């Protein structure tokens, strides 16, 4: 398999993959092993400049077993989901040759060659943001490149799906639909791009990372309990989501923000309602999440049409999608009014990501936050409205692109000599 350079070579690929936020939620599986959902879902891919996973994968005849390091720590690769992805990729690997480096790998060699995987998130892991979507998508995307897998993104999405359902939607930028499919073998349960990130680039997304002491129920076990015990989930999957998917596709195609916002908020609320309808009930949102919903609902009502949509995944963090930069600045003012930082905070780490939104909001330092006037929709009782310290920090971002290979070897997370993390 290796030519002139003997058994010493290390071949690697590095890729960057975005995370995504569902605006029509996936919740519930009809097949646990293949990860086949009970309804279609739609997501927005987030700008990888602010939230993404970078993964380097390497292969070498010197490697003795498959290994993975996540955010600096080696973890076990023995889980069924990792193994399913690896098996699917190896079976689709093709011949590879790099004449300059003197490396030649035949299709059948991939079964025997072991891989090293090193992965980092560019956002704090403690944020409680769904990192599995970006992580698994990046693992599949980078290994597919390394192994010279020639399948298109929709086929790769079906492999990423077997790592984590929501990961299949991170194979594309912009607006993405995961089609649930009908086949028992999952071959038609794939993600497709509805529109790329340039299609609706007015949208600005602000994530409120909400402080939480509570240990959350994992999505995997939560949705299993919901499918087993909730009567409402059946109504949701059969009657509600199919109609919403059509309406959401239309809203995205027409850039119809009021419909988009109405559907996204309603679907997030129904997802949390089915969690509450589960036995034992699951509470992902907390008081701060509820307060954020209250602020947005009040503001939208006051304006007479939606300015902002909210959506919450399996945790208390709010993802707020505003219709343009102007409303994003007004939203950030409101958020900072309601949730000012602790007095010893550093503004630079309290609002991260696209800082120009902070500038548009007229906030240059902590004093500007303290001086914010209550928004017109809450004039009365304003003194009771400020909840210092309930939000850890905010991330300003926007819809973003799909996975890319980082060609510059200096960006690799793997030492080319040792094949171990740098
Ligand atoms: C609430 O994809 O994390 O974020 O398929 O079991 O790995 P598994 O679950 P996961 O579930 C995500 C659920 C959600 C909604 C969504 O992303 O659609």
From TrEMBL:
- The EC class name is lyase
Which Enzyme Commission number(s) are listed? Answer: 4.1.1.33
Every Mvd1 C-terminal domain range: 205-405
Q: Which UniProt keywords apply?
A: ATP-binding, Isoprene biosynthesis, Lipid biosynthesis, Lipid metabolism, Lyase, Nucleotide-binding, Peroxisome, Steroid biosynthesis, Steroid metabolism, Sterol biosynthesis, Sterol metabolism
Q: What are the GO cellular component annotations? A: cytosol; peroxisome
The record's listing under InterPro entries reads: GHMP_kinase_C_sf, Mev_decarb, Mev_diP_decarb, MVD-like_N, Mvd1_C, Ribosomal_Su5_D2-typ_SF, Ribsml_uS5_D2-typ_fold_subgr
**Compartment list:** Peroxisome
One biological process term from GO is: isopentenyl diphosphate biosynthetic process, mevalonate pathway
Cytoplasm found in the keyword field: no
Q: Which Pfam families match?
A: MDD_C, MVD-like_N
Catalytic activity from the UniProt record? (R)-5-diphosphomevalonate + ATP = isopentenyl diphosphate + ADP + phosphate + CO2
Which Gene3D superfamilies does the UniProt record give?
3.30.230.10, GHMP kinase, C-terminal domain (3.30.70.890)
Where is it mostly found? other
Q: What does this protein do?
A: Performs the first committed step in the biosynthesis of isoprene-containing compounds such as sterols and terpenoids.
Q: Which family does it belong to?
A: Belongs to the diphosphomevalonate decarboxylase family.
Name the record gives this protein: Diphosphomevalonate decarboxylase
* Species assigned in the record: Salvia miltiorrhiza (Chinese sage)
Gene designation per UniProt: MDC
């Amino acid at each position: 398999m290796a030519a002139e350079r003997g058994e010493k070579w290390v071949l690697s690929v590095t890729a960057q993959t975005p995370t995504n936020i569902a605006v029509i939620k996936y919740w519930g599986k009809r097949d646990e092993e293949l990860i086949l959902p009970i309804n279609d879902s739609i997501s927005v891919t987030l700008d990888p400049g602010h939230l993404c996973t970078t993964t380097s994968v390497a292969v070498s005849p010197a490697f003795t077993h498959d290994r993975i390091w996540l955010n600096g720590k080696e973890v076990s690769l023995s889980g069924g989901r990792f193994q399913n992805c690896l098996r699917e990729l190896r079976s689709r690997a093709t011949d590879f040759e790099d004449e300059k480096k003197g490396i030649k790998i035949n299709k059948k060699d991939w079964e025997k060659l072991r891989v090293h995987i090193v992965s980092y998130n560019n956002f704090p892991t403690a944020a409680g943001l769904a990192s599995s979507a970006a992580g698994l998508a990046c693992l599949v995307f980078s290994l597919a490149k390394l192994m010279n897998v020639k399948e298109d993104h929709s086929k790769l999405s079906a492999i990423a799906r077997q790592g984590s359902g929501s990961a299949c939607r991170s194979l594309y930028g912009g607006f993405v639909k995961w089609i649930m499919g009908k086949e028992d073998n999952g071959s038609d349960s794939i993600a497709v791009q509805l529109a790329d990130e340039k299609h609706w680039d007015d949208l600005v997304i602000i994530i409120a990372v909400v402080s939480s002491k509570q240990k959350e129920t994992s999505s995997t076990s939560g949705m299993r309990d919901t499918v087993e015990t909730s009567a409402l989930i059946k109504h949701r999957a059969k009657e509600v989501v199919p109609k919403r998917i059509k309406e959401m596709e239309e809203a995205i195609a027409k850039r119809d923000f009021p419909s988009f916002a109405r559907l996204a908020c309603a679907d997030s609320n129904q997802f949390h309602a089915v969690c509450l309808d589960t036995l034992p009930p699951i509470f992902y949102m907390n008081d701060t999440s509820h307060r954020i919903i209250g602020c947005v609902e009040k503001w939208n009502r006051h304006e007479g049409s939606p300015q902002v949509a909210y959506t919450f995944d399996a945790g208390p963090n709010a993802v707020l999608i505003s219709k343009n930069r102007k409303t994003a600045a007004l939203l950030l003012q409101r958020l900072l009014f309601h949730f000012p930082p602790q007095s010893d905070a550093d503004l630079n780490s309290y609002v991260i990501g696209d800082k120009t939104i902070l500038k548009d909001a007229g906030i240059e330092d902590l004093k500007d936050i303290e001086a914010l006037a209550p928004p017109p929709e809450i004039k009365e009782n304003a003194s009771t409205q400020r909840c210092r310290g309930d939000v850890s920090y905010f991330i300003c971002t926007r819809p973003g692109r799909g996975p890319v290979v980082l060609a510059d070897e200096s960006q690799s997370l793997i030492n080319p000599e040792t094949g171990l993390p740098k």
